[in-house]
Amino acid sequence: MRFPLFLTFILIVFTANSQFVVSKYDSTLKIGKAGYRISCFNKLVDRNILNIRPIGFKQEAREVSFELKGRVTGSEIDDLNLDGFPDILIYFLDKDSKPSILSVSSKNNESLMPIYFPDITNDMVLSKGYRGGDEYKLVEGILFRKFPVYDSDTSIKTPTNKVRQIMYRVVEGDQGTWKFKAFKNFEMTKD
Fold first, then answer.
1. What are the structural domain ranges in the chain?
2. pLDDT tens across 109-128, in order?
3. Which of 93, 110, 92, 79 lies closest to 178 in space, CA to CA?
């Protein structure tokens, strides 16, 4: 009788602990014959190596690996800058479990370059009432960002009944770079 109870106990402990394990992220996304393979072991909360390998690019294109201060949760592919080449958007949770993104552009399927995403705290209008809780979604080349709005009184710990949504497009930046730029925002009441 003790052995089945012991086995049940071990099974419960194993199941409970496995909920906190974040699995390796490995995905291949393509548009036509060109795309990317994204992989990350996701072992540590605050530091992982992210690998981005171009697929179907010219010989000059090389795999890129760098340290990511978080864990990859997903990725999407689209032609964000409308240049005819595939770009990748990678979703991750940073070390504080805040959702965030990073994006990479194909430069003529010969090399990779980052697409810069602005820090919302640098924009007085968009950041009013911002305390995180972001959700991101890519729809037909437009990046949607949604988060709950808080009162300006920081002693209030619960959000208001409103959600702000910001829409971003990729535009040309300085010296041939690319960046996301907010072009529309609005607030709506939560259901």
1. 22-189
2. 999 999 999 999 999 999 99
3. 79
